[in-house]
Amino acid sequence: MLSPYRVLDLTTERGMFCSQILGDLGADVIMIEPPGGSPARRLGPFYRDVPHPDRSLFWWAFNRNKRSITLDITSSDGQVILRRLVAGAHFLIESDTPGALTAYGLDYANLATLNPALVYVSITPFGQDGPKAHYADSDLIILAASGPLILTGDDDRPPVRVSVPQAYLHASAEATVAALIAHHERQYSGHGQHVDVSAQQAVAQATQSGILATPLNAEEFQRFSGGVRVGELRIRLVWPAQDGYVGILYFFGAAIGPFTRRLMEWIYEERFCDEATRDKNWLAYIELLITGQEPLAEYERLKLVVEAFTQTKTKAELFRAALERGLLIAPVTTIAEVVESPQLAARDYWQRLEHPELGQAWRYPGAFAQCSATPITYRRRPPTVGEHNREIYMDEIGFTAQQLADLQHRGIV
Amino acid sequence: MAHDRPLGDVKILDFTWVMAGPAATRVLADYGATVVRIESTHRLDTGRTIGPFHDGQPGVEHSGFFQNLNAGKFDLTLDLSQEAGREVARDLVRWADVVTESFSPKVMRVWGLDYAALRQVKPDIIMLSTCLMGQSGPWAQFAGFGNLAAAISGFFSLTGWPDRPPAGPFGAYTDYVAPRFTAAAILAALEYRRRTGQGQYIDQSQAESALHFLTPALLDYTVHGRSQERGGNADAHLAPHGVYPAAGEDRWLAIAVRTEAQWQVLCEVMQRPDLGHDWRFATLAARLMHREALDTIVAAWTQEHRAQEAEAMLQARGVPASAVQNSQELYGDPQLIHRGHFVQLAEPLHGTTTVEGSRFKLSRTPARVERAGPTLGRDNQYVLETILGYNPERIAALTAAGILR
Fold first, then answer.
1. Complex ipTM
2. pTM here?
3. Is A141 on the interface with B (CB under 8 A)?
């Protein structure tokens, strides 16, 4: 879909997922790494737990469908070479501290004079400007500053994050959308622009609009392990099964009430509740609780009924019933179960990528969507450090072997 | 008119509901796409029943969640179970560039509105279906919401404390992730159609999109056979790293020390220079090994301070720290205010409503968030008369036949 377009990627772990999505959509992506390799290559886990820049699984996760060159953009020769690349590029993605690239003449204003059609994307913790623009950051800091963290975890413990870092993935994926909007506009105007993405604002989407509770004069959501608490109402999501846990959306109203009714019918069939419990008004139940017509203690009792029932079933039994009876139940899967999922196998989701440098091939998560006319393909495994230096510097830019050797000798490449 | 906004020429017929689909089309509407949402009073958008609500009062026209996801869109109520309703839908397909839907697989086919049918009506249409598990496979019919998709995709087992049941990320997590891929796929398909004249069908499984946010853990399994588990707030590369109690009830401070220099500064700010020389904390490896003792010491200091104060003290010296902000603090956050994150819109039932603005800035063609999310059927007249050019008699006949509900 994007095969005519070239993307230059100057980012670290803050932004490299953005150009991977563009690469999955067909763009020609060049990672520009400092000599020695990107700092993101120092993040684990590592292949066989041996740290090595070409063996970081974290790097592999976000750099397929890209080529890699090394270039010291802090040197003036490096800047000249980068400007040559920029002249022929359509997108540039960077994730440096706001203003940092100005020192190298590589800020948007400078590069736009060279290539007015360039879409220049900056991905930063808090955006290019504002009182926190220069805050020191990390995944956890952004989650704290943007709202989802206070809502996540057990209510008797500190808030907790997803154990796999998420914040910069939200920012990077948001940046892809932003870049493509600017690209669409460029088709008519002929002009590029500066795209300024704030990770804080991107991650705020993960509050599910809870961020708006204060301006709407509504009660704040509160964390409650595996569910949400609104006032005294503790809406539970995680339930025990015989062999682990399941998620059940045990809720009410016009949309969800019918699912809850079907679950209660099953629980009744297996004699875990009486008729009166089964036949409550599930469509209006939330209103009954809010108005006090139904005491909260009764709702708490219902949850114990459901728990007593789910404990007697395996995850697979509960999920099979969900598919057959139309219930809102899903197994809480381990990573191993996800990779071995029959659903993902049936859809041929996993894509095997050869790593010839290690003599092996491994399964990667596959296409994020199935596109009928332009299927997403994995054309390149994540590159080793500077793997495409010769290809790009000699075959495409036109340096001689002597010139390239000279640049390498001087530490610029 | 068409090109004064970046997506001013893009027309979207939007059958999606709740969050995953509407969040994607909201971004496109912010940048000028004309989005016509189809709703039905027979089958209310569940999004209208999700809080936060204006003044905490539930009601189909009170949902701030719905308004946040649907600002800037047009709304047509249409009974698709009747042929006359489907005829209107097909007229809108002729008008549209893109059709989006998020029903369980089969629903659009039953209505004769699947891709095979729509391309007969408009050969270059781009159609995107988004649902939890995708259009095919043994679990295709699994209906539900993004919290269940997050449970079945590994996010739950990776979130929480090792000694407790999984807590899971807050809410319908895959609904926050998937919309980015939805919008990117639509924009890329428009680009492809511009060059080739070809439309296409896009089958998005929200679970398959969201798994890209777990790739390092997935590779750890496919490469090493290791199934990662939840680890609280511990980080393999950083210590101290965690959420520490601050003064006040349910007040917390996040700290993530990334360098040795930051560790030394933290010791100074805590007025504990002795720790800088303590062998238990002398290197990252040592601090990781003595994480519990370290966390106890840090917590003793954070407890003495308000979260925002401690954040300011540490950030002033370059140590990554942030108060764990709730809605009230977020609404007063000087950074979010500076970025224009909160947008007040006129809204007839409540006077004003507040929604989130665009999450990014385009320097030359900024977002415009100007019109509140629709009340049910707010734009029926506009859509039928102005967009479709129906005459008053035809509109009256549709109304009389109960199609516009």
1. 0.98
2. 0.97
3. yes
